[in-house]
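Chapter review: from sequence to fold.
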Amino acid sequence: MHLDEIVQWIDRAFGAEALEVDTERDEEALRSVLGDGGYQRYFRDQVNRQIIRDYLTNAVVLGVITEGGLAAFAEAISSEEGRATLALYMLMSSVEDARDLPPVTTELEPLKPLHPQSPPPPGDRSHIKLVPR
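The token string follows.
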């Protein structure tokens, strides 16, 4: 199964959107605003901010890092690309690993899109890896 198929399945499983509109015109207006590239970029950044906020809050509450240790994340979370990279690392690691997040201990390496070269052989399980540019 390909990643895009997994995402599509999950989207279908969510069911109908929570936002309901009364007319087709209202629906089209919402699609034009919410489908805009600028809004999508803004929305992704807001999601990344929430992931980072929740992750770091949990790490402090669990005593994995101290409040003073939050300063180590300041540079990474000050840019949109830094937030995207850090949020991805956070999604792929447990809160208990907060001290060992690569963006905190090393220079941030920007992410680059992966381009599959060929389908995996049958029975081969795919693994998600962070790939620097």
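Two observations follow directly from the output. Residues 37-61 form the longest helix (25 residues). DSSP finds six helices and no strands in the chain.
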